[in-house]
Specification:
The complex is a heterodimer of chains A (250) and B (389).
Chain A: E1 2-6, E2 9-11, E3 33-35, H1 37-53, E4 57-64, H2 68-78, E5 82-87, H3 95-107, E6 113-117, H4 128-136, E7 140-150, E8 153-160, E9 163-170, E10 173-177, H5 189-195, E11 200-204, H6 236-245
Parallel strand pairs in A: 1-4, 1-6, 4-5, 5-11, 6-10, 7-10
Antiparallel strand pairs in A: 2-3, 7-8, 8-9
Helix pairs in contact in A: 2-5, 3-4
Chain B: H1 14-41, H2 49-55, H3 73-86, H4 88-108, H5 111-122, E1 128-131, E2 147-150, E3 156-166, E4 173-179, E5 187-193, E6 199-203, E7 215-225, H6 238-272, E8 274-275, E9 278-279, H7 284-313, H8 318-342, H9 354-366, H10 371-383
Parallel strand pairs in B: 1-4
Antiparallel strand pairs in B: 2-3, 3-7, 4-5, 6-7, 8-9
Helix pairs in contact in B: 1-3, 3-4, 3-6, 4-5, 4-6, 6-7, 6-8, 6-9, 7-8, 8-9, 8-10
Classes of the chains: A alpha/beta (250), B alpha+beta (389).
The complex binds flavin-adenine dinucleotide.
Chain lengths: 250, 389
């Protein structure tokens, strides 16, 4: 069982974001970075599959500047076998060139599965996985919350609005992982030390010119304070009316 | 608001940050949800020993050849910081296991002792305790009464009592310091399996501090040990003191962890608790409190980090460790108390961390050399005059 996992370096979300001068990027001062959560669950899924089968290889790929090697090493410290750094000066807003570069790196890898997160929490486009599948001509199953793989076939559960869908597919396939599939393991201290000794191959890539660019970035408007409409049972009719007419949630 | 006000993160290597983050996540997931209850119940959460070992925190700065993680001293310090962010009792467990039992076996033990004990202790299969303090000899351990006398067959017979021994009741092995003659230089370390006849351990009841920690009294009554129970390279009071220097180094970091937990809690509370129509954090008195706390945390962090770098370079002195332990624990006790006060009535509840940390830190202030004793160590370093003798 040979599985590739594509991971992205993203800012940790519990910080307060500000927009950098120029208005098209966020200010990176004071931010911390980590592997995208959904990608961590994809790494975990790959590791569990390898452990369940007993043999195989988990290969982690990340595209971006040299700093993404930190995120690759995190996946290695969790137990992935080797890493591939697709070296590019920056990652723009157009996902197609990124997916192309990843697909090129994956094409001849002989992978039984290609795992990604459902989306990256920084830009939330969620298209990289499906585009890779398209470029490689592979079946694609998105937003997987349960996964079983046996005898060259996969069976996955997808969460839909108010329903669940069970799908089956042949391998190789591209799978994007949703919340709920698993909880990722913590890197152990030995794992962290061991990761430094695992192979990490650097391959420079040239991305196609982006056709999508960010023109303007804006923060959400300041939240306005709450409103007290009354107290006790007497206030309920007015509350219901506002929820219905103003907030339009009823 | 983060406690990393001086961007100290940038001075840490990637794996140092990775180690810290793993331990922090572990503490958030496994320690914080249960520690308040453990504290009130007076119970050390033994169920965490296995997971802590699996994570790799036990003896983490000892070499991989003995089943340990082989980390540098800064990474080790960060582990202590994160464990004590949870609770001083959890950090005490790890300090004793790693710095006071595994370290002396590593430093003074035979190859056979190292191979037997270290991997099992790193794996949490054997828990250890360290017996130096006695009922009548605390700050002055050189006066100890516990003796080890050689019998006819060259084995040892141990007699005496130790007090305040962390991990004492749950340990499978005790490192016991005893006099083999009459003088201070006859002090040697012994590895004592706790199921040896004549060995008894009794939980010390009635603690109002470190309640989530096992603190016990040990009694040895004609405990017969084989000849190879001695730590062959130990010799004189300087041997246990060398272990304490290791543990104190970790405490200088650990105290900052407790202080950060208190600060974070106080900041969050100051923003949400509304009195006189606005968050209490908007009043100058609470802002001054928080500013003082943060200032001491930043100073303490820088002190610990620099000491760690010196230790990794092999140049740290015991006096520098004394200064860091003395300062960081002392400011942490103040920070915890101020956080408790900022929290008002809620500050006395176990649901919040401040008072638990405040009470815990009183033990930390006293053990591993009291604050006063470290003052005298520094006084001697400054003046060349020894206040002890
Ligand atoms: C929770 C807890 C866990 C512990 N765990 C361990 C353990 O695992 N193993 C172990 O061996 N020990 C352990 N100890 C013991 C600890 O190291 C001692 O309590 C400490 O060394 C102080 O000794 P003492 O309590 O006898 O105080 P004393 O030495 O009696 O000191 C009493 C007071 O006198 C002061 N004093 C003493 N000498 C001087 C002096 N020359 N000049 C000025 N002032 C002085 C002290 O600073 C203190 O304020 C633990 C203690 C506690 C509270």
């Amino acid at each position: 069982m040979k599985i590739a996992v594509c991971i992205k370096r993203v800012p940790v979300m519990d910080r307060r974001f500000t927009i950098a001068p120029g208005g098209t990027t966020i200010d990176e001062v004071g931010l911390a970075y980590d592997v995208n959560d959904f990608d961590l669950w994809a790494v975990e899924a790959a590791l569990r599959l390898k452990e369940q089968v007993g043999t195989g290889e988990v290969v982690v790929l990340s595209l971006g500047p040299d700093v993404v090697q930190e995120q690759i090493r995190k996946a290695l410290s969790m137990g992935a076998d080797r890493g591939i750094h697709l070296q590019a000066a920056s990652v723009g807003a157009d996902d197609l060139p990124v997916a192309r570069a990843l697909a090129d790196a994956l094409r001849d890898g002989g992978y039984d599965g290609i795992f990604l997160g459902r989306l990256a929490v920084d830009r939330a486009n969620g298209v990289t996985g499906p585009v890779i599948a398209e470029l490689l001509g592979l079946p694609c199953v998105t937003a997987v919350s349960k996964l079983e793989i046996a005898n060259g076939r996969g069976r996955a559960q997808r969460e839909l609005e108010g329903a669940q869908e069970i799908v089956e597919f042949p391998l190789p396939a591209v799978i994007t992982v949703d919340q709920g599939l698993n909880t990722e393991r913590l890197p152990t201290l030995k794992g962290i030390m061991g990761a430094k000794k695992k192979p990490l191959e650097v391959r420079p890539v040239t991305l196609d010119a982006p056709r999508v660019t960010v023109r303007r970035l804006a923060l959400p408007p300041e939240r306005i304070g709450g409103r007290i409409i009354g107290e006790g049972v007497g206030a309920v009719p007015e509350l219901v009316r506002l929820l219905h007419d103003e907030a339009k949630v009823l | 608001m983060t406690t990393d006000f001086f961007a100290i993160d940038g001075s840490l290597a990637e794996e140092e940050r990775a180690v810290r983050d793993s331990v922090r996540r572990f503490v958030e997931a496994h320690v914080l949800p249960i520690i308040g209850t453990c504290y009130v119940d007076g119970r050390f959460p033994r169920e965490l020993v296995g997971p802590l070992a699996e994570l790799g925190v036990l003896g983490a700065n000892l070499p991989e050849t003995y089943g340990c993680a082989g980390l540098n001293n800064v990474a080790y310090g960060l582990i202590m910081q994160e464990l004590e962010r949870g609770d001083s009792g959890i950090r005490s467990f790890a300090s004793v296991q790693g710095a006071l039992v595994m370290y002396p076996i590593f430093a003074f033990g035979s190859e056979e002792q190292k191979r037997h004990y270290l991997p099992k202790m790193a794996a949490g299969e054997i828990i250890g305790c360290f017996g130096l303090t006695e009922p009548d000899f605390g700050s002055d351990p050189g006066g100890m009464l516990t003796t080890a006398r050689q019998d006819g067959s060259r084995g040892w017979v141990l007699n005496g009592a130790k007090m305040w021994i962390t991990n004492g009741s749950m340990a499978q092995v005790a490192v016991v310091w005893a006099k083999t003659g009459d003088a201070e230089h006859s002090i040697r370390g012994f590895l004592v399996p706790t199921d040896t006849p004549g060995f008894t351990a009794k939980d010390q009841k009635g603690k109002l501090s470190l309640r989530a920690s096992d603190t016990s009294e040990l009694v040895f009554q004609d405990v017969r040990l084989p000849a190879d129970a001695i730590l062959p390279l130990s010799g004189g009071l300087k041997s246990p003191l060398l272990c304490l220097t290791q543990a104190r180094y970790g405490i200088a970091w650990g105290a900052m962890g407790a202080a950060m937990a208190c600060f974070d809690e106080a900041v969050a509370y100051s923003k949400t608790r509304v009195m006189f129509g606005r968050p209490i954090g908007g009043f100058q008195i609470q802002q001054a409190r928080l500013a003082d706390m943060l200032t001491e945390i930043v100073k303490g962090q820088l002190l610990a980090l620099h000491l760690g770098r010196l230790k990794d370079a092999g140049t740290a002195t015991p006096q520098q460790v004394s200064l860091a332990k003395r300062n960081n624990v002392s400011v942490a006790t103040d920070i915890a108390r101020e956080a408790r006060r900022l929290l008002g009535g809620n500050g006395i509840l176990a649901e919040y961390g401040a008072m638990r940390h405040m009470e815990n830190l009183e033990s930390v202030y006293t053990y591993e050399g009291t604050h006063d004793i470290h003052t005298l160590v520094l006084g001697q370093a400054i003046t060349g005059l020894d206040a002890f003798r």
